[in-house]
C-alpha cells in the first residue's frame, strides 16, 4: 500500500471538515472491511483516511421510532443489528438476511453505514432495505438531508453521497402487516457473495396481494426494483400461473450482468425461479409485528 494520512476526529462536524468535496482519494473509514481489501489490491490508493471510530458512540445506537419504525446509527456493527431485539421485532427479514451475510468476523467489524456507502451491488442488505422502504440520513457542510435508499445507488459502486457527506443513520419505516422475504442464491458456500439476491415486500391478505415491492441485487449493475413484476403481483391472488408471469416479467426486465458467479443468461433464469420462491416465502410469514 502507498503511504497515506490517517486522522481520527472526535465529532461528526470535525470529520466532515476533514473530507474533501473535490478529492475522492480522501475517504471516510468505518469498519474498513471492504476498503482495506481494495487498498491491499491496489484498487484504491487514499491520500487521507478519516476514521470514524472515535465518533461512533454517538451514532451507533439502535432504537424503535414512532409507530414501529426503526432508527439504526450508521456506526452500529452488523452483528449488533443481527442480534438487536428491536430489529427482530420490527423488521425480522433484516435479521434473517444477516445470518448469511459474509461471516461472523466481518459482521463484528463492518458497520451498517459503511456497508451501504460502499455501493457494492453484490451486498445483501440493499435489496432488503429498499424493499422495506428504508432511507439514509446524511450530513455534510450544507446540513442534513434524507435520501431514499431506492435512489441512493446511482451506478456500479456509485451512490448519491457527495465526497464530503457522511451517513449518520438508517431509517426503516413501520412495516405494519407487510410480509417480507429475502432469498440469496450463491454458487459457493451459503455465506458467499450472492449470484443473485431477491427481496420482496407484500401487503397481502392470505394469498391476495394488494401491493408488492420486488428488488434484485448482485445479478445487476446496481440494486434495482422490478416494476413490471410488481404490477403483475399487485391485485392478484397468488397461484402458480401468477408466479410464472411475474418471474418471466422480472427476468425480462432485469438488466443482468455476467461475472465469475454466472453468465447474464444464467442470472436471468435465477431471477425467473427465485422470485416465485421469495414471494411464496413472504406469504408464509404471518405479517404481524414481532
DSSP strand content = 15-25%
N→C terminal distance: 47 Å
Annotation, overall tally of beta strands: 14
Shape from CA axes?
globular
Please count the helical segments: 12
What is the CATH class name of the largest domain? Alpha Beta
Largest sheet: 5 strands, antiparallel
What is the radius of gyration computed over CA atoms, rounded to a whole number of angstroms?
19 Å
CATH architecture of the largest domain: 2-Layer Sandwich
Plain-language structure description:
The protein is an alpha+beta fold and 290 residues long. It folds into three domains: 5-49; 59-172, Uridine Diphospho-n-acetylenolpyruvylglucosamine Reductase, domain 3, CATH 3.30.465; 179-284, CO dehydrogenase flavoprotein, C-terminal domain (Enolase-like, domain 1). It is built from twelve helices and 14 strands. It has helices at residues 12-18, 35-40, 78-82, 85-90, 92-98, 104-109, 112-118, 125-131, 149-152, 227-233, 240-253, 264-284; strands at residues 5-7, 26-29, 48-51, 62-64, 70-73, 135-140, 143-148, 153-155, 158-159, 166-172, 179-185, 196-205, 208-217, 224-225. The protein has a five-stranded antiparallel β-sheet with strand order 4-5-10-6-7. A four-stranded antiparallel β-sheet has the order 11-12-13-14. Helix 10 runs antiparallel to helix 11. It is globular and about 60 Å long.
Amino acid at each position: 500500500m502507498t503511504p497515506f494520512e490517517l486522522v481520527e476526529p472526535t465529532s461528526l462536524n470535525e470529520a466532515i471538515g476533514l473530507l474533501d468535496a473535490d478529492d475522492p482519494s480522501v475517504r471516510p473509514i468505518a469498519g474498513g472491511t471492504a476498503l482495506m481489501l481494495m487498498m491491499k489490491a491496489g484498487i484504491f490508493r487514499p491520500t487521507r483516511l478519516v476514521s470514524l471510530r472515535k465518533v461512533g458512540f454517538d451514532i451507533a445506537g439502535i432504537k424503535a421510532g414512532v409507530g414501529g419504525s426503526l432508527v439504526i446509527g450508521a456506526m452500529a456493527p452488523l452483528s449488533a443489528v443481527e442480534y438487536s431485539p428491536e430489529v427482530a421485532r420490527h423488521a425480522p427479514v433484516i435479521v434473517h438476511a444477516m445470518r448469511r451475510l459474509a461471516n461472523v468476523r466481518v459482521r463484528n467489524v463492518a458497520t451498517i453505514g459503511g456497508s451501504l456507502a460502499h455501493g457494492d451491488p453484490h451486498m445483501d442488505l440493499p435489496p432488503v432495505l429498499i424493499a422495506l422502504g428504508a432511507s439514509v440520513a446524511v450530513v455534510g457542510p450544507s446540513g442534513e438531508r434524507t435520501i431514499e435508499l431506492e435512489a441512493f445507488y446511482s451506478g456500479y459502486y456509485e451512490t448519491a453521497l457527495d465526497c464530503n457527506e457522511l451517513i449518520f443513520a438508517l431509517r426503516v419505516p413501520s412495516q405494519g402487516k407487510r410480509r417480507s422475504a429475502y432469498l440469496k442464491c450463491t454458487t459457493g458456500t451459503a455465506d458467499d457473495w450472492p449470484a443473485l439476491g431477491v427481496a420482496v415486500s407484500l401487503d397481502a391478505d392470505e394469498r391476495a396481494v394488494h401491493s408488492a415491492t420486488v428488488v434484485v441485487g448482485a445479478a445487476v449493475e446496481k440494486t434495482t426494483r422490478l416494476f413490471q413484476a410488481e404490477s403483475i403481483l399487485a391485485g392478484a391472488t397468488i397461484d402458480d400461473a401468477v408466479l410464472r408471469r411475474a418471474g418471466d416479467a422480472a427476468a425480462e426486465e432485469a438488466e443482468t450482468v455476467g461475472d465469475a458467479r454466472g453468465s447474464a443468461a444464467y442470472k436471468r433464469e435465477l431471477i425467473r425461479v427465485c422470485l416465485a420462491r421469495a414471494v411464496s416465502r413472504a406469504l408464509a410469514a404471518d405479517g404481524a409485528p414481532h
